[in-house]
Amino acid sequence: MTAHITRHHLRNAFVTKVQRLAGQNLMACYQCGKCSAGCPMASYMDILPNQIIRLAQLGFEEELLNSKAIWMCASCLACNTRCPKGVRIAEVIEALRQIELRARHEHLKVEDIPPEVLSKIPPIALIGSLRKFTS
Amino acid sequence: MKLSYYPGCTMKNHARNFEESTLFSLKELGIEVEEIKRWNCCGTVYSLSADEVMHQVAPVRNMIRAKEAGADQLMTACSMCYNTLKRANQRARANPEQLSRMNAFMYDEPIDYQGDVEVVHALEVVRDKIGFDAVKKKVVKPLKGLKVACYYGCLLVRPREIAFDDTENPTSLENLVTALGGTPVNFSHKTECCGAYQTVDKPEIVADKTYQILTAAQDQGANIVAVSCPLCAFNLDHRQETTLEIHPDLHTMPIVYFSQLMAIALGGDESVLRLDLHHTPPGPLLTESGLL
Predict the structure, then answer these.
(1) Contact criterion met (CB < 8 Å) for A20 and B231
(2) pLDDT cut 70: percent of chain B above it
(3) N or C: which end of chain B has fewer CB within 10 A?
(4) Which residue in B50, B201, B209 is closest to A23 by CB distance?
(5) Residues B183-231: tens digit of each pLDDT
(6) Residue B224: beta bridge partners?
(7) What is the interface size between A and B, counted as CB pairs within 8 Å?
(8) Do A74 and B14 touch (CB under 8 A)?
(9) In B, which residues are within 8 Å of A74 by CB distance?
């Protein structure tokens, strides 16, 4: 993808918001790619975890919030544990989800879950997904 | 020895097999557990947002229940409960200002939480308070014939601050299986995520993960997988149905809780094993191995 980076991108309120919600310093990332290498969900993502961090550093709000990748994370924390710079990638992904969810852009609607699924899945799965995918 | 016990929601329905076998085994090993009264949801998943205090209240409230029972330790067997309770507890301890906001919110509680309860996992209790050597002496039915892939998943070992074993290569379960007379196999996927809560709206992705994990277990010579999380159990066991539709060459394999392996070895009968709750039945392998 071709990206045009301007000063406006780098210093926008979105970058500040992501850093605040995630409690992370995005600039600590030096793009080693270890997070993406060990991510069990990477092959289902349209943007890889290391690319999520890079785009967040540079303030690419639309690209991130419209990505499928931010909803693919399973919060397994393999990336966090392995990051040589101590960046908590899963927290950054959760921050991006929160920006959407706090604007009431739900990823999952309970009414869309078929009754046959609801009757089978254990509460641990249902509550877990509602906690991560709804506001 | 007496311990306060937090069951969690899934232990009371889909994972009765986990609860019954855990309580039976601990009793056989000389540990009395007492379920805390009026426990509430642990929160299921830890909130990763830095500004989020509200979602820490539910897990922390359970610490107050433990204090009411006079306990300074709270044991749980479900990996997700363990992770959420322990992380919320650590957060409350490390942030007095946040803890005081939580206490203010819970103004109707008879006491304030002071951060003085320790969250422990049942496997950790067996390893550290009883010891695998002592477990070995109580075995009446060694798990001969069981080649076990020990699957820790994510939440027992990550993040590092809550882990009671190595983050990348934990060995507690293998040592337990050895003490029980079974054979643990080398297992490359022991801490690889099963897809967790993605199972609700993306079952086909979880099916891929299940396929990868169980194929690795089979390649490494396992005939059974031991888990410690009801969500891993659901994904690896019940999702074998969806997995077979996508990957017809899947070698199906029984998935059991580590506590069921303990219960079998310690002489528990089928009433504590609740094998009726499994999708891929462990019965045939256990019968063939002379364990039922």
Answers:
(1) no
(2) 100
(3) N
(4) B50
(5) 999 999 999 999 999 999 999 999 999 999 999 999 999 999 999 999 9
(6) B148
(7) 125
(8) no
(9) 154, 193, 195-198
User: The pTM is what?
Assistant: 0.96
Residue located via tokens 């210093």 = A11
Residue A10 has pLDDT above 80, yes or no: no
Q: Does A120 touch chain B (CB under 8 A)?
A: yes
pLDDT in tens, B274-292: 999 999 999 999 999 999 9
Chosen for mutation from B49, B53, B157, B229 (greatest number of chain A CBs closer than 10 Å) is B49
State whether residue A113 sits within 8 Å of chain B by CB: yes
